[in-house]
Amino acid sequence: MKNALLKSIQNFFEEDDLSRNLFYQKSLPADEVLCSLKIKSPLILSGLPWLEASFQYLDEDFKLPKEILNEEGKQQNAGDVLNFKLPFNVALNGERIALNLLSHGSAIATYTSQFAEKAKTKNIKILDTRKTTPGLRALEKYSVRIGGGFNHRLGQTDLWMVKDNHKTFFGGLEEAVGFFKSVGSFYNETEVEIHDLEELKKALEMGIRHLMLDNFHPDEIKEAVKLKKEGITYEVSGGINLDTIENYLIEGVDAISVGRITYGAPPVDISLKYERV
To answer: What class is the 118-263 domain?
Structure first.
């Protein structure tokens, strides 16, 4: 895990530019301090591997205690505290990057869990999208999983996704699907973004197995379910939020994709305080 994160962590520290003032860096004491990770709002903790890797970038011998690592993915309440030790200079130089990553991951996991909790009553999966922050996709998609959601795809070539821009460029549904079939590998699946019931019927006639019902009204989804055959999956998408999701928990829907779980998660509050040992 550490090696997988090293490149991105290095980029984050280069952006922070600690080397600008080497005299300051040399002057910082290395005395050991007790670090207290203070949870100040209810959350699901996600991103401890990123926090650990951030401090390991500055101190390769650092490891979070197992009892803290075991808290990953668990509910934390305001007032909870997780303690570990670090040299003062490492704590000071690494805390902002470490906290930013942990807070961001925890916000996504917490928000995702709220959607997943509602959707599980109908056995519907909550999916993320590719609306992720450049450089943070791994953390964001990891945190979706920690929060009980599922990853739609990590990149464009995981699944051929035929969207409206493809259909416009290639001249229609059949032409766009034909293009992706021509470049696909043996195991690549195809999903088509569908915008109305007539297009859905056409896609089903073409043998498309995975269909995204984009911006369908709940009443239209109920009509679409009547057309569904065995082996077909329906994904519903389009501006669904916590206030409206109940309307889309319809028997026959397999998944709901929600872009806002990665780009719009409300922030959580975590701080790091330390004192001399």
So the answer is: alpha beta
